[in-house]
Structures are given as C-alpha cells and as structure tokens.
Design brief:
This protein has 874 residues and is of the alpha+beta class. Helix content is 45%, strand content 21%. α10 runs parallel beside α12 and α20 (711-728) runs parallel beside α21.
Length: 874
C-alpha cells in the first residue's frame, strides 16, 4: 500500500510537466508554431550565409538591357542570337525563364527555332501553370507551354513555385505534377543532378544571391563579354528589372526576381543543400524530456536562476539547430523546445508566487515568535543590556545589567545613566562625568558604580536605533574586572619572558601565522642590524630581511638584494634544516627555523664564528695535504721516467748476455745470472710503468686512444700472456665468449692492461691446481661486462676498498709469497673510469674472487650498427 501511494504521488508530481507537453504537442501538430519556426529559420539563414558555386551564370534582362534595347517585347531573333552566342561559347546548358507560348512573326519564330535546333537539346524552355476561366464560372488551371515547333527542340521544365502559409516561397520541388502531366522544375532540369532529388525541399536562403555570376542580356546579344565567363557553365536567362514586376516574396531578402529564386534553388540542389525538416516524433520527444527535466528544477531554483537557465536552454537550442543546419542539410525545428521550457518556467513562476503568499504569512508568525524569543534571549543574556534616550534616561534593562550595578537606585527604569557610568580616570583623580554625545559605537572601557560605592571595570558597546520617530540607544555592558586582572598577570608574565629571551646568547625571533614578528631579543637585532637596532615588533618577515639586506649587513646580499630576499623567503616558508649566513663584520650565524603548532615560526641564530675559524684552519691543512699529494704524484712521474731509461739499458745488456751476441760467456751460471737480471729488470719496469700510468691519471694527463676493437681478439691476446704461468701452476683456464659479441669503442692498450692485471692477479693468488674462467656477456641497457673468476684465496668484503686503492695490498700468507706494488687493481679501476665504466670485485675468503669489468652502452657497437659506429670514430 505505501509503495502504491508513493507511485501515485510521483505521477501527480509529474502531471504539470505532462500537461505542458500536451499543450506543446497540440500547438505543434496542426502547424500553429510554424510562424515561429519560420522566423527562427530566417535568422539562421542570416547567420549562415554561403557563397554560391561557380557553375551558374545568370543572364539578366535588366534595366541596362531595356535601356539599350528600347523595343518590347523583343524580337525572338534577339533570344536566338543570345542562344547561339552562349552555345558557341560552350555553355553546358541554357535555361530560359521567358514565355514563348504565343506566336510571333514567322521569321522571328523561325530564327528561334533554328537556334534551338543548333543547340542540340541543350536549351530548357519554361512551362507555366496558369489560372483560366472554366465552365459555370469556375477557375481551371491550364498548362501554358512553348510553341510545339520550339518545344520539339528543347527540354520543357516548370517554373511554377508554391507559396507557404506566410505568403513567401520557402520550398521547391524538383518535379511538378499537374494531373497526369509531370515536368521537371526549371532549376532541376538545369542542374541534371545525378543523385535522386527529394520530392520537395527547403531552399537554402543563406546562399548569397548577390554573389551569383551575372551578365546583362544586351552584353551577350552584342558580344560584349568574355567567352571564359560562359565555358562549362549552366546559364539561366530571366528578367530581373523591376519594370516587369516578376518578383516573389522570400525569407531574408523580402522579395527577389523569380529567376533569382530559380537560381537559389539550383545552387541548393547542386551543393547538396536541399534542406529537410526533421520528423515531428523526435522533436516532440525532446520537448517532453525538456519539460520533465526542467519542470521540477524550475520549482527548486530562484526565479533569477530559472530565467538564466531558460535563456541558456533557448540559446543552446538555437545554437544546436544553427550548427546542425550549417553542417547538414537539415532544419531542426526548435519552437516546441522553446515553448516547452517557457511553459515549464511560467508554471514554476506561478507556483512560486502562490508559495510566496504562504511564506509571507508564515514569516509574520515567525516574527512574532522571534520577538518573544529575543525577549527571552535579552533577559537571559550574560551581558547587561539596557536602552536609554538622548538625555541618558534608562528605558529598559535586563537582569544581567541589574547585577552589574548591584541594585544601585539609578540602575532602574527612569534612572540616570550618567550617574552609574564614568570614564576611567588616572589614579588619585576624581571621576569625571560621562559625555553621552561621545558614547557611540565602541567598545569603550568605563567604570560602573555599584550601590555600595565599589567601582568595577566594564566594557560597553553602544548602537543607535529609531523607534516611533524617537532616537534611542542600546548599550551592551560586560563586566571585565576579572579580565583586567588576568591582563595584568599576562603583562607581568610577558615581561619576565622578554627578560629571559634577552638574557640568552642566541638570537631569538618568533613570527605569527601571518609571518609578522611577535617578539625577538637584542641578539637577533644585533645579527641583522648591528649597533643600529630598530624596533621590529609587528613587521613582516619579508620587510625585516629586506631592510637588513639594504643596509649592507648581510654579506651574501651585497649587490643582489632582490635575489637574496627571494631565496630567504623560499627557505623561510619551507624550512629544510639549519643553514649558515655570514655578516659584514665577519661573524657567522647558524640559522635554524621551526614551525610552531599554530602555523607560526621560531628562528634561532647561533654565533658560530669561532667554529668557522677552526674550519678555515682545517681547510687550509687539507689543501696543503692535497698540494703535497700532487707534488708526490708529479715526483713519481718524473722519477719513473728517470728510472726507466737505465732499466731499459740493463734489460738490453742482459738479453745480449743471454743470447751471447758478443761471444760465449763461459760458465753457465753467468747466463743464469743474466736471466735473473733480465727478469728482475722487467718486473721493476712493469712497476715503474704502472706508477707512471697511475700518476698520469691522478694528474689528469692520461688520454685514451679509442677505436673499434674486437673483444674476442683482445681477450685471447691477454690470455696468451698468462697462459704459460697458469699451466706451470696447474690451473685450468676456461673461456666463454659468445659468437655474437659486439665491437667495443675503447683504448685497446688500456683494455689489455685491465684484463692482463686481472688475469695476473687470478693466476698469482690462486693456489696450484685452481680454476680460472673468463666470460663476456651483454647486460641490461645494452651494456657489456667481462667477468674474470678464480678459485683463489679470496678477499674479505671489508678489505675490497683497500685492494682497489693505489699501493693497497691485503695481508695474507699467500699474498706475501708474491711480488707486487699493489697498483694492478687501482690502475685497472682508473682505466675503466676513464672509459665511463666500472670495476667491481665480488670475493669470499677461501672461495675465490670474481672481477667484473662493465662498459656502458655508448661504448658498445653492435654489428648492425657497425657503419654508424665507424662514422663516430674520431
């Protein structure tokens, strides 16, 4: 039962909108809204003006032609001559809107007939449907066609048009039927439209008739025209002179000559602008939706908002219909939509007026209740409320006011206000009288005298009103004696706080949520302004730092005040941690800012000048150490060159002794000594070369000679150098090099040095019978890695950084058994860093070490990009 009642009430709520729709449908179906739609269509035509095509030429029988050819009617030889000239100029088709149904002179008819025969059927002659008197006084309609001799050589077409209910021509039909006779319309016959035209369509009067190409009849007759104007065009001949009165009422333009209306119909047809109206069903459906959607909303909205929505709906509907007509040959009728929205708004407005009457009655009752309620509020108010006149006579007062004055006889209706309220006087002086003329607005602080003579501080706010032409005043009085006591205590606490803040050594500043300075100490002002310390309370943070920068106190702000202030503002609004600031007297401050809970900020300025002096000393010591290190590096580089020359001589002479170039040495032990000398010399030379390379890299003088190199050949060459030593130690060597390895753009000597150092370490630090493997692989991001793994003694993870450092060696029993300066890994890592690559060690004690050499993608050249890579080689 409740559900059925709910549905019934819902239907009743929709009933007004349904009634609106029925009214719209009853007016729209019989065509009573056509006059509105016609005006809307005319407006759309004015907005959507179009240029005509270039397929039509209008030959006008205009005032100029009548003036130069003063005889009328013209001989038909004139028309014959015009047809001949147009056909000779290669006109596509020629349509004539002139009546040739009556006989003329035989020679004139013969001339026109000859011209039509010569045209080979490219001429269209008009047929008229005319009214004639019939039997019994009735009016019959007869067809007036050209003479049979003329019609035989031309195409016949109808020139009749139909008027709408408003007496204007709006539509045209490509085929005109009279009883059993059907003829094409003149414009349709001229167009020869390949697609089937609609039975009837609305002419697009947005096409500009003044832009249609025109030429006077007389100019064609005497050959006063350019043939290019006619070539390939359809020609329409007709009267446009006002003397003929052959004008037709049309939209937009008022009246137009009949031949111009035929021209507009022709342009509409060939441009696919044969406008059609949308059927009534979807139009009415949208009208129903508008009524159902807007009706309830209009009842909820104010009349002003409803009017704005109504205007928006009208503009949207008109804009939509205009846009549809601009893009498609469709006339979207919106009059039902406009009427539906207007009726829905009118109904809502009527309902609102009825509801307004009811609201006024309800407001009257509400006001009465409100008066009674406000009387209770005034009586129960915590503040004292009283009214008095211009003379200070009390008219009314509430219970709270009586308590404030504690039963004073003047604190009653008819009492004198000036006797119980006095201005605050300085201590030791008598109380002055209250001046009522100055007692306006507020709040004011006064003294209230009680019945026992005790005075209490009160706060009073006075407002003025006029009642029954009499000026009255309303005074709201509050006892603030306790508040005054609390304020005195707060001032004392504030004084103590200020003294405590002033006593600290750091600069202190507190800003409120509006970024204004609440309080600060002298140390803060000294930091920013030096000896000249202004009062900064209440100033914005931006103004304070602006003044500090402009007075030249902040060293980093000199010459760039605006930039420094902007930077400080950004850092102040989003604190990220402490920062340092230097001042012009050489002092440094560490500034720390924190947000407070209420949105303000606290700033602490700590003097770190002494700390900065210590830092400066440490910095000088570090620079001195770095200078000494560079001197050491340069010394090693120079000494390496000095040592290499005699070493080469020693190695050369030892090889001569071994090869016995100058003759036998004698005892075999001499040759063994010579081999020991050569081996020791070569070992020392390798160390010197490594030292020289390291010194070059540290000094920044090492340059790479990059070229495209084959990774396989470099790896294999490096393996051959250590292969004999690995076999002597019983190590097994395994190599995993894929067949599709790319080329590498690198320094071949440096890469060999890297691989040789890593392979030498693997052979050196792997116990006899161990395993060594070399593997190359492509990694993510198109990079390349070469892994050299061994089963040697390994390195503890915490010792890896020391092993990669220059002259760094990890202490172990096995390590001490082998020679080395500790430069191999450091040099390999330096060479890899010069290539933009990496050297990584993954090692575990007594398990083994894996050294990974990684090259970035820009060093890798794939085979398919080899040509590109070669072009990149410097």
């Amino acid at each position: 039962m409740p559900l059925r009642l709910f549905r019934t009430m819902a239907k009743l709520r929709r009933m007004p909108q349904i009634m609106v729709f029925l009214v719209v449908a009853c007016l729209y179906a019989p065509g009573y809204l056509d006059f509105v739609e016609s005006e809307l269509a005319d407006t759309r035509f004015k907005l959507l003006d179009r240029a005509p095509s270039e397929n039509l030429l209008l030959v006008e029988i205009d005032a100029q032609s009548l003036q130069e050819l003063p005889v009328w009617p013209w001989p038909r030889s004139f028309h014959a001559e015009v047809i001949d000239r147009l056909i000779a100029a290669r006109a596509r088709r020629v349509a004539i809107d002139i009546d040739f149904s009556a006989h003329s002179k035989p020679q004139e008819d013969q001339a026109l007939k000859t011209a039509l025969e010569f045209s080979n059927g490219r001429v269209i002659l008009p047929a008229f449907m005319q009214a004639a008197s019939g039997k019994a006084g009735q009016t019959d309609v007869v067809l007036s066609a050209p003479l049979p001799a003329l019609a035989r050589h031309a195409t016949l077409a109808s020139v009749n048009v139909a008027l709408e209910a408003d007496g204007r021509v709006r539509s045209a039909s490509p085929v005109v039927t009279w009883g059993a006779t059907s003829l094409p319309a003149l414009f349709a016959a001229l167009a020869e439209h390949p697609e089937p035209a609609p039975d009837s369509f609305y002419i697009d009067f947005g096409i500009q008739p003044s832009a249609i190409s025109r030429v006077s009849f007389v100019d064609i007759l005497i050959g006063r025209f350019e043939p290019e104007l006619v070539v390939g065009k359809n020609v329409l001949i007709g009267a446009t002179a006002g003397q003929f009165g052959d004008n037709i009422p049309v939209p937009v333009y008022g009246v137009l000559p009949a031949v111009v209306v035929q021209a507009l119909a022709f342009e509409s047809l060939i441009a696919d602008r044969t406008l059609q109206r949308v059927t009534s069903a979807p139009i009415l459906l949208v009208a129903l939706l508008i009524a159902l959607a807007l009706g309830p909303r209009f009842l909820e909205w104010s009349w002003c908002r409803g009017l704005l929505v109504l205007a928006a709906v009208w503009l949207t509907a008109f804009g939509l219909s205009t846009a549809v007509q601009a893009v498609f040959p469709i006339i979207l009728e919106i009059a039902p939509w406009l009427l539906a929205s207007a009726l829905a708004y009118a109904y809502a407005l009527t309902r609102r007026l009825d509801q307004q009457d009811l609201r006024l009655l309800a407001q009257s009752l509400t006001i009465r209740r409100k008066d009674a309620f406000m009387s209770q509020v005034v009586e129960k108010s915590f503040d004292g409320i009283l009214t008095f006149d211009e003379n200070g006579t009390i008219r009314t007062l509430n219970r709270a006011a009586e308590l404030i004055f504690d039963g004073s006889p003047e604190a009653a209706v008819g009492g004198d206000l000036c006797k119980i309220l006095h201005p605050i006087s300085p201590a030791g002086t008598e109380q002055s009288a209250l001046d009522l003329r100055r007692l306006q607005g507020g709040p004011y602080e006064l003294v209230a005298r009680r019945a026992d003579g005790v005075c209490r501080a009160v706060q009073i706010v006075v407002s003025q009103m006029v009642q029954d032409h009499e000026t009255l005043f309303i005074a709201q009085i509050r006892d603030i004696s306790q508040q005054k006591l609390a304020e005195a205590k707060a001032r004392e606490a504030q004084t103590r706080l200020n003294e405590a803040i002033e006593s600290i050594h750091e600069g202190f500043a507190l800003y409120d949520e509006q970024d204004r300075l609440v309080l600060c100490n002298g140390k803060f002002r000294e930091f920013l302004f030096g000896a000249d310390r202004p009062n900064l309370s209440g100033r914005p943070f931006e103004k304070i730092i602006q003044e500090a920068a402009e007075c030249g106190r902040v060293a980093s702000a000199v010459g760039r005040v605006e930039a420094w202030v902007s930077h400080c503002l950004a850092r102040h609004r989003n604190p990220q941690g402490p920062y340092e600031e230097r001042f012009e007297d050489g002092t440094y401050a560490l500034i720390s800012e924190r947000r407070t809970r209420n949105g303000g900020r606290v700033a602490i300025y700590t003097d770190i000048s002494e700390l900065k002096r210590h830092e400066s000393g440490l910095r000088a010591a570090v620079e001195q150490a770095q200078t000494a290190n560079r001197s050491k590096t340069e010394f090693l580089a120079n000494m390496s060159h000095e040592l290499r020359t005699p070493l080469n001589a020693i190695i050369g002479f030892s090889e001569m002794f071994i090869e016995q170039v100058l003759g036998p040495l004698g005892a075999p032990r001499y040759r063994e000594y010579a081999e020991d000398i050569r081996g020791s010399g070569r070992h020392l030379l390798d160390i010197i070369n490594d030292v020289l390379d390291v010194s070059k890299i540290e000094a920044g003088r090492q340059e790479l000679n990059c070229e495209l190199i084959d990774i396989r050949s470099v790896v294999e060459a490096s393996l051959r150098l250590v292969e004999q030593r690995a076999q002597d130690a019983g190590h097994s060597l395994s190599v995993d090099l894929p067949d599709d390895l790319p080329y590498l753009y690198a320094d071949e000597r440096a890469l060999k040095q890297v691989l040789l150092n890593l392979l030498s370490n693997a052979v050196k630090f792997t116990p006899d019978g161990g395993a060594i493997s070399v593997r190359a692989r492509l990694v993510e991001a198109d990079g390349l890695s070469i892994d050299i793994a061994d089963s040697g003694i390994g390195i503890a993870p915490e010792d890896v950084p020391r092993a990669l450092a220059s002259f760094g060696q990890v202490e172990s029993d096995l390590a001490r058994r082998y020679e080395g300066a500790g430069l191999g890994l450091a040099l390999a890592r330096s060479f890899m860093e010069l290539h933009g690559g990496t050297l990584e060690l993954a090692s575990e004690v007594e398990v083994g070490t894996t050294a990974t050499v990684g090259f970035p993608a820009d060093r890798v050249r794939r085979p398919e990009r080899l040509t590109m890579a070669h072009s990149a080689v410097p």
